[in-house]
Amino acid sequence: MLKRTHLYEFHSKYGKIVEFAGFEMPIWYEGIIPEHLAVRNSVGLFDVTHMGRAIVEGPDATSFLNYVLARDVSSVNVMQGKYTVMLNENGGIIDDLTFFKLEEEKYLVVYNAANREKDYKWLLKHSNNFNVKLSDVSDEVVMLAIQGPKAVDIIQSIADRDVKSIRRYWCSFANVAGKDVLLTRTGYTGEDGFEIYLWNTPLSASDKALKFWNSILDAGKEFGIKPCGLGARDTLRLEAGMCLYGHDITEKTTPYEAKLDFTVNIDKGEFIGREALLKQLEEGIKRVRVGIKLIERGIPREGYKIYHDDAEIGVVTSGTFSPLLKCGIAMGYVDVNYSVVDTQVYIDIRGKKVKGLIVNMPFYDTEKYGWRRKV
Fold it and tell me: Domain check: are 13 and 161 in the same one?
C-alpha cells in the first residue's frame, strides 16, 4: 500500500495526486509553471513530510557521524547544519542529506524519501561500534518547506522570536502560529526560506498538521502564497543546479564526479569511502556533471545522449523546460575534456540534435534570483 502524509486530505482535495517514493503526493495544484514562478518571485509552500528523518544521539554521536558522512561533523556548532553525502566503500553516493547539531550529543539527519529504509538500515549497520542511539522519527514529525523571497517575512509575522537572524544552514527552535517547531534556513529550490519541523505529530494527529499548514497559507495570502507540488519542486531544484538522487547521483557516482567536492573533507580522518576517493583524486576523474542550456528549441529528458560534433560525450540525467528562462535546460555527465563552460554541445532529442552550451549552475542570474539575490 502507498503511504500518505498528514496532509493527504488537503492534497487530494486540491491537488493532482501521483505516486512518488511509495507515497501518494501532489504533483501540482494550480499547475507546475505558476507554482514554480510563485516561488521564484514571491513564495510557495511544500509538504515534504515524505522525506526521511532520524535522530542520532549519545556520547559517540559526533564520531559516528564523522565516520559515516563525508563532511567534518566535529567542526559544526550547536544549531548549525551542513549538506553532505553518505558514501559506500567504493566512494559511491548512498544518499545526499543534511544534518543539524541540536545539542552537544544530539543530531537530526534528513535524507531523501526514496532512501528512507535504505539510509536508516545503513546507519544502524555501522553504529555497532559506537555508543549512540538511533531513532527513526520520519512518521512522527511533519516537515514543510516555505520557499521564496517573501518566505522569511511570512514566518516572521507568525513567530514568537526573531527568525530573520537565523543564518543559512543554521537552525532554531521557535513558536510559529502557536506551534513549537524547528526552523532550518534551508531548502531545495535555490531560494531563501525555511524547512519547518513540527515535532511529536503522528499520523493520527493530522488535524494538528492541517491547522498548521493552513495557518501558514493564511499568513502568506497578502504575498500571493501558493501550495506547491513535487512538479515545481523538481523544476526549481534543476534551475538551481541541485541533484536529484537516483538520477543525477547514485551509488555509482562519486562526489567528485558530481561536482560535490564541497561536501567532502578528505583530510578529516577515516570515513567510509575515503580510500576510494583518494584513489580517484590520484588517478583523475573521467566524467563530470555539467549544466547545459539549449539555444535551440527542445526539451531535454533523462537518458538523452550528449554530443560534441559527431562524438558522443555523455548523457542527460535531468532535463526540463525552465519556466523562468523559457528554454530547455539539463544536467548530465560528460567526458571531462568537454566540460568547460561555453563549450558547444548537442543533445539528441528524438533523433534531432539540438544545440546547447555548457553553462555554470545555477542556470539563473544569482543577482536577480535565489537566496543570493541583490534586487
Answer: yes
Query: How many CB atoms neighbour CB 357 within 10 A?
Result: 14
Closest CA to 325 of 350, 299, 347, 348: 299
Please indicate, yes or no, if residue 127 is contained in any of the structural domains.
Answer: yes
Provide the sign of the torsion angle of the four alpha carbons 34, 37, 43, 44, taken in this order: positive
The answer to whether the CB of 146 falls within 8 A of the CB of 216 is yes
250 pLDDT band, cuts 50/70/90, is very high
- What pLDDT, in 10s, does the model give residues 303-361? 999 999 999 999 999 999 999 999 999 999 999 999 999 999 999 999 999 999 999 99
- What's the pTM value of the predicted model, to 2 decimals? 0.97
> How is residue 272 written as a grid cell?
567510509
* Backbone Cα Rg of the chain: 21
Q: Are residues 194 and 207 located together in one domain of the fold?
A: yes
> Average pLDDT of the chain?
98
Domains contained in the chain, number: 3
| 192 and 153 together in one domain | yes
Q: What is the pLDDT of residue 184?
A: 98
Query: Which range of residues forms the domain containing residue 190?
Result: 8-51+139-238
For 18-38, what is the HEC assignment?
Answer: EEECCEEEEEECCCHHHHHHH
